Every structure is written in structure tokens, then in C-alpha cells.
């Protein structure tokens, strides 16, 4: 045993999930979203495991450059685009596809004198109010993009959904309708149409009309359900990351004694408390609540007391055979990260992205 705590990455599950997503959107290509270190799963290794994806999407230029440096030759989309001539030059050099959502980016492109071909995704804001041209500004942006003197320019269009994870909310239908209307108002219908991209994971799994030519799943690739009430396995998705740790010791705590900082948990009976190597220094939220399940030997036990920097405590009273050196699962196979996120009043995205630098990723 070398590592007390590690994030096991099931690359077969990654590939399986890509296949599952393809089955949900058989008419679409898949732009695999691997920003933020592939949601904590490892940027380069995830890209290599997902070599069958049609393209990759990242948020920042440096993420794309890291992929190219690792030999990834597939198309890479910069979801936020570029913000200086220097960034544009670098992006063009690496052949990145650029999202264009702000007039500044059109200006940079108009001043750009590169020889590389460029593929641009013009983003329309259909209600998210984050990035994108408002529908009334789209035709103007499109005209400027078409007038660019860039070799082999290819234009595509995209939007992003704000509430696709809420199945009964009408906003997704409204956004898709606004997107389609904006395109047809700009004359991009029939023979003039451009390739489109709409759905994230929730849009891909939950809304047939929200696919477009390219779906953009992130979370679902990692085997996590984007819908609050619905488990990932219902969609045939398998968890990719298992955060596995080690029992450091098991101690007797007498009734009435407290465990950990601030005495935040008091034993109501004589108890056995396992101390595990996982804490907020590894990315566990400090406010994980008492009762959060931890999996040891296939059974669930409740977290007790405060999360420390390097350790948590778990009530294993009555369980035989739990001892120092044993393994425990904080989330992953058998214990969905969606469930843990609820106990921390957050979303699985934040837990996965928050796994800290100290935690080694081990490919399986
Ligand atoms: C992060 C992101 C996605 C992926 O979202 P998931 O909910 O993880 O599937 C798709 N599109 C854009 C623009 C994003 O920023």
C-alpha cells in the first residue's frame, strides 16, 4: 500500500458512457467537454481514453495547449474563445475552434492576418444571459464573421441551456425555439443552414430537440446524472471516478464523549469510530453533514463530526472486521457522487472539480 487516498479512474466506463450518450443522440456528433481537468478526472488521460469523441471542448486556451502538447490531434473547441491578438495567434496555430460571443472577438478576428484555417462557433444567448450574442444582435455578428478574410473560414452556431436539468421547466423549449427562430430570421434555414450545437448532458439525455448537430456532454461522460432525482444508472451511465481511501485507525469512544474539532458530534452510546484519510485538503467539503454515507466493505456508515484537513471520522459501531489499513469509498462505485453532493448542499460538478492536486489519479 503506497497511497492512502486515490481517485481511481475507470477508463472503460468513460468509453461506455460516450457510447451511451451516442445512443441518446444518434444523429449528433459528440463534443466531449473536458474543461477543468476533465471535471477532476485528468485532462490528458481523459482525452486519450475518449479518442472516439468527435471533438473536445475546454474553457481556456492553456487547457487546449496542454492537450496538443500531449499529442491530441482531434478538434478542440475553446468554449469562451480568445481575448487578445496573442491568444488568437496561439489558438490559430494550434487549430482550435473558437467560440465567438463578444464584439471584441470579432474585432480581433478582423485584425487577424493568419494563414491557418479557422472554425468559429458563433454563440447565441437564448436566455442563459451568460455568454452569447442576443438574438437581435446575431445577424450583425454573423455578417461580420462572414466578411472575415480568413482562409477556409467555417462558421457554426451554438447556444447553451440554462435549465435543461429540470425536466418540467418550459424554458428549455423556449430556448430551443428562440435559437431556431434566430437562425431562420438570419436566413440560416434549408440550404443555408450552419452546423449547430445546443445540448449539454441534461439537454442530450432529456430533450430530443435540444441536440443539434453536435451535443456537448460533460457530466454524463463521467457517469453522473445531471438530473437531481434520477440516478445515472437509469440512463445506463457508469461512474468513472471512485475516491478510495484508507482506514487509519478504529477507536473506542465512550458514550457522552465528542469526536473531532469543536466537539461537533457526541456519542450517544459507546461507539467504534473509524478515522479515514480524506479531508478538505483533498477536496471534501468541510460542511459535509453528519450522516453522510461512507462505504466500507460494501456497507454504508455515517460520517460523524467535522471534516478535518486530512481526515474524517465514521461511526462503524457494531461492524466487525473494520480495522486500520482497510479500504473505504468516499464516492464512486456503489456510492454515487450525486448523493454525497446533496449532503454537502452542492452539485456533483463541484465535488468532482474540487478533488485537490494532492490526490493521485490512477487509471484503471
Ligand atoms: C461545461 C459546459 C458544457 C457541459 O455541461 P454538462 O452539464 O457538464 O454536460 C456544455 N456546454 C458549455 C458551453 C459548457 O460550458
Task: Give a quick precis of the structure.
The chain is α/β, with parallel strands linked by helices. It has helices spanning 11-24, 35-40, 43-49, 61-69, 85-93, 103-111, 135-146, 171-185, 201-206, 337-343, 348-353, and strands spanning 6-9, 29-33, 55-58, 76-78, 97-100, 119-123, 154-158, 196-197, 214-215, 241-253, 258-259, 265-266, 271-276, 293-296, 299-304, 312-315, 327-331, 361-363. The protein has two domains: 11-224, Alanine racemase (TIM Barrel); 241-363, Lyase, Ornithine Decarboxylase, Chain A, domain 1 (Beta Barrel).
Largest sheet composition? 8 strands, parallel
Alpha-carbon distance between the termini? 16 Å
Residue ranges: pLDDT <50 for 5 or more in a row?
Answer: none
Strand content: 15-25%
CATH third-level topology of the largest domain = TIM Barrel
CATH architectural grouping of the largest domain: Alpha-Beta Barrel
The run of helices and strands is EHEHHEHEHEHEHEHEHEEEEEEEEEHHE
Q: Give the cofactors and ligands.
A: pyridoxal-5'-phosphate
Explain how this protein is built.
It is a single chain. The protein is α/β, with parallel strands linked by helices and 364 residues long. It folds into 2 domains: 214 residues, Alanine racemase (TIM Barrel, Alpha-Beta Barrel), CATH 3.20.20; 123 residues, Lyase, Ornithine Decarboxylase, Chain A, domain 1 (Beta Barrel). Helices cover 27% and strands 22% of the residues. The chain is built from 11 helices and 18 strands. The strands form 3 sheets. The chain has an 8-stranded parallel sheet. It has a 6-stranded antiparallel beta barrel with strand order 10-13-16-15-14-17. A two-stranded antiparallel sheet has the order 11-12. α7 crosses α8. Pyridoxal-5'-phosphate (PLP) binds next to loops.
Amino acid at each position: 500500500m503506497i497511497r492512502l487516498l486515490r481517485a481511481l479512474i475507470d477508463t472503460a466506463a468513460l468509453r461506455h458512457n460516450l457510447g451511451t450518450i451516442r445512443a441518446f443522440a444518434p444523429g449528433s456528433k459528440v463534443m466531449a467537454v473536458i474543461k477543468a481537468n476533465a471535471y477532476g478526472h485528468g485532462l490528458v488521460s481523459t482525452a486519450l481514453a475518449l479518442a472516439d469523441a468527435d471533438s473536445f471542448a475546454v474553457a481556456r486556451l492553456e487547457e487546449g495547449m496542454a492537450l496538443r502538447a500531449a499529442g491530441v490531434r482531434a478538434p478542440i473547441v475553446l468554449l469562451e474563445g480568445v481575448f487578445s491578438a496573442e491568444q488568437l495567434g496561439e489558438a490559430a496555430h494550434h487549430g482550435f475552434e473558437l467560440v465567438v460571443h463578444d464584439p471584441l472577438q470579432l474585432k480581433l478576428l478582423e485584425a487577424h492576418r493568419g494563414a491557418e484555417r479557422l472554425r468559429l462557433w458563433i454563440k447565441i444567448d437564448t436566455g442563459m444571459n451568460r455568454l452569447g450574442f442576443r438574438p437581435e444582435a446575431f445577424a450583425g455578428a454573423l455578417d461580420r464573421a462572414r466578411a472575415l478574410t480568413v482562409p477556409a473560414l467555417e462558421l457554426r452556431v451554438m447556444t447553451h441551456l440554462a435549465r435543461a436539468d429540470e425536466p418540467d421547466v418550459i424554458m428549455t423549449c423556449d430556448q430551443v425555439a428562440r435559437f431556431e427562430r434566430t437562425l431562420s430570421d438570419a436566413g440560416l434555414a434549408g440550404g443555408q443552414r450552419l452546423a449547430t450545437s445546443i445540448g449539454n448532458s441534461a439537454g442530450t439525455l432529456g430533450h430530443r430537440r435540444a441536440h443539434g448537430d453536435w451535443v456537448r456532454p460533460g457530466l454524463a461522460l463521467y457517469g453522473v446524472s445531471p438530473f437531481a432525482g434520477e440516478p445515472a444508472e437509469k440512463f445506463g451511465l457508469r461512474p468513472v471516478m471512485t475516491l478510495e481511501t484508507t482506514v487509519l485507525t478504529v477507536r473506542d469512544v465512550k458514550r457522552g464523549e465528542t469526536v473531532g474539532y469543536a466537539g461537533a458530534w457526541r456519542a450517544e452510546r459507546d461507539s467504534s469510530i473509524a478515522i479515514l484519510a480524506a479531508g478538505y485538503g483533498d477536496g471534501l467539503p468541510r460542511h459535509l453533514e453528519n450522516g453522510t454515507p461512507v462505504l466500507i466493505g460494501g456497507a454504508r456508515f455515517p460520517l460523524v463530526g467535522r471534516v478535518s484537513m486530512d481526515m474524517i471520522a465514521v461511526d462503524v459501531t457494531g461492524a466487525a472486521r473494520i480495522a486500520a489499513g482497510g479500504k473505504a469509498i468516499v464516492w464512486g462505485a456503489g456510492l454515487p457522487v450525486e448523493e454525497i453532493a446533496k449532503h454537502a448542499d452542492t452539485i456533483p460538478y463541484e465535488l468532482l472539480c474540487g478533488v485537490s492536486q494532492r490526490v493521485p489519479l490512477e487509471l484503471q
